Amino acid sequence: MKIAVIGAGYVGSVTAAAFAASGRRVTVIDSDPRKVERINGGRSPIYEPGLDALLGSVVGRQLLTASDRYDSISEADAVFIAVGTPSLPDGTADLSYVSAAADSIGSAINPDRFTVVVDKSTVPVGTAGLVASRIEERSGLKRGEAFAVASNPEFLREGYALEDVFYPDRIVIGTMDPEARRILKQLYRPLLERHNYSSLADVIPQPAQPKADTIYFETDEGSAEMIKYVSNAFLAVKISYINEVAKLCEAIGADVTDVAAGVGLDSRIGSKFLQVSSGWSGSCFPKDTAELLSASRKYGSELTVVKAAVESNRGMHDYCVEKVRRRLKSLIGKRIGILGLTFKPNTDDARQTQASVIIGSLLELGATVAVHDPQGKAMFQALNPNLQVRYCDTGEETANGTDALLLLTHWEEYALLDWKAMRQRMRTPYMLDTRNFLRTAPWGEWGYEYEGMGIGTVR
Ligand SMILES: NC(=O)c1ccc[n+]([C@@H]2O[C@H](COP(=O)([O-])OP(=O)(O)OC[C@H]3O[C@@H](n4cnc5c(N)ncnc54)[C@H](O)[C@@H]3O)[C@@H](O)[C@H]2O)c1
Ligand SMILES: O=c1ccn([C@@H]2O[C@H](COP(=O)(O)OP(=O)(O)O[C@H]3O[C@H](CO)[C@@H](O)[C@H](O)[C@H]3O)[C@@H](O)[C@H]2O)c(=O)[nH]1
Questions:
Q1: What pLDDT digit, counting tens, does each position of 161-194 carry?
Q2: How far away, in angstroms, is 131 Cα from ligand 1 center?
Q3: Strand partners, 78
Q4: Separation of alpha carbons 84 and 86, rounded Å
Q5: Beta partners for 455?
Q6: Mean pLDDT across the stretch 183-206?
Q7: Which terminus, N or C, of the chain has the lesser number of Cβ atoms within 10 Å?
Q8: CA–CA separation, 385 and 62 (whole Å)
Q9: CATH code given to domain 2-219
């Protein structure tokens, strides 16, 4: 079977590599020639643990090539669309990249063979129909005859993308076309059965925990498209809930870590996504909650729970700034060090990260800010040209002369810093750990004033 994947970003490059590792011949198409060149050189276009080695292996075995041309579409049994769907200013999803990809597929599709076009991008209900009409317009073909369209949302998490694509909880397929269902089931069989993995054992990660079998779930296009948004919004609501509980724990005199652990022991609730933070962020939750909310309003059925989570989340960013302001009295002329610019560890993705909001507020309140991130500096700098901050090469340098350090992202590298020595670099030894990541260290002994999140003084 031959596959084409359009878009070599966080989803497309991982998807393409996983299909190639399961024995398919894959072409990944991207309009950015730098990404194409990197992949053809056997290197990852993004920072994602394990992806360099996997791409090196499948490119080396000639199972995967990259191109900026669409020629390979004419030979593909399945074409996956994995281009970006960022937010427009009104919160709705920008479908211009998906539309452009559909047009290019329409121009290149082979009328003499059946092709299933699969939407892996996160898109609103109805987009499968839009993709089909654009292909019909360009090609003169009829949906259901020479081609079909399916929705196959992706659920991978950045930083764990390989584990998530090789051992997913579920694969959701949205199409009522029987031929498309047959092709996709055949395509996913090696990943479902995990039988090809042994030959690539050196480049496919072992899951941290034993993984249950993957559920293969078939439905219609619209329901599949909806499943993706509802899943992301559900997770965002869950985090917002525990973050609000953290604030209450501080006020009432309880410890949110224990509260979350105890609550999560109920198997109906589960322990995942109950980690307190300065708020959820990144390239998915903010845009996907915005699109879902906007769709719910359009159809007169506003999802007020999601609306509350979005508002609460912004409040969480502000709460962190307020904690620092309260401790330092005023921020005018104060020097703040920020550890972590990405929305979570093990990624270089700095799109819509909470760090940009928090830093913006600190600067507005008169502070000067020094920042560090192990991987996210380049993207953060490119996306936030107006934030006047000093970029540091190390965590140690970030601490120099500061009145407060804020740990925003729990990179493992920050656990390894010599915190005792870091204290000597600071002007005022105040540390706000927004993830409760380093809370067990002997901060008092080292002369710090340490604050976590949601750790109230027990009365
Ligand atoms: N990032 C994630 O963790 C994640 C997880 C699940 C789902 N998603 C969804 O998957 C989609 C892709 O997200 P991403 O983070 O991989 O985006 P991305 O921006 O990292 O990658 C998109 C790629 O598509 C390329 N591209 C855009 N238009 C093109 C065209 N017409 N032809 C060829 N290439 C084109 C871009 O150059 C870019 O490399 C989004 O809808 C997103 O919501 C993302
Ligand atoms: O207990 C938690 C878990 C996460 N977060 C934060 O929530 C955000 C999102 O985290 P995560 O979901 O791990 O990252 P993503 O890579 O954005 O993955 C989400 O978004 C993807 C894109 O749609 C989906 O594919 C994934 O299933 C979904 O988890 C980040 O800011 C995290 O720091 C918390 O604050 N507490």
A1: 999 999 999 999 999 999 999 999 999 998 898 8
A2: 16
A3: 3, 116
A4: 6
A5: 255
A6: 83
A7: C
A8: 40
A9: 3.40.50.720
pLDDT tens digits, residue range 299-318?
Answer: 999 999 999 999 999 999 99
Superfamily of domain 245-451: NAD(P)-binding Rossmann-like Domain (3.40.50.720)
- Ligand 1, atom 1, lies closest to the CA of 10
Tell me the CA distances in angstroms from 200 to 87, 145, 166, 377, one per residue in order. Answer: 38, 37, 12, 32
Q: What are phi and psi of 306, to 5 degrees?
A: -70, -40
Q: What is the mean pLDDT of residues 253-265?
A: 97
Q: What is the 3-state secondary structure (H, E, C) of 156-193?
A: CCCCCHHHHHHCCCEEEEECCCHHHHHHHHHHHHHHHH
Q: Among all residues, which ones are annotated catalytic?
A: 284
Whole-angstrom Cα distance, residue 166 to residue 156?
A: 10
Q: How many CB atoms lie within 10 A of CB 186?
A: 12
The reply to whether 85 sits in an annotated binding site is yes
Q: How far apart are CA 179 and CA 181, in angstroms?
A: 5
For atom 43 of ligand 1, which residue has the closest CA?
A: 122
99 sits in which H/E element? helix 96-108
Reported as a pLDDT band with limits 50, 70 and 90, residue 203 is confident
Task: Report whether residue 85 contacts ligand 1, using a CB cutoff of 6 Å.
Answer: yes
Instruction: Compute how many other C-beta atoms are within 10 angstroms of the C-beta atom of residue 326.
Output: 9
Could you tell me where in the chain the CATH 3.40.50.720 domains are found? 2-219, 245-451
Q: What is the largest CA-CA distance in the chain?
A: 75
Spatial distance between the Cα atoms of 353 and 344, rounded to a whole number of angstroms:
9
Measured from the CB, is residue 232 less than 6 Å from ligand 2? yes
**281 in ligand 2 pocket by Cβ < 6 Å?**
yes
Cα of 450 vs centre of ligand 1, distance in Å, is: 39
Residue 459 has pLDDT above 80, yes or no: no
Top mutation candidate among 68, 119, 283 for ligand 1, by most atoms within 8 Å of CB: 283
- pTM (2 d.p.): 0.96
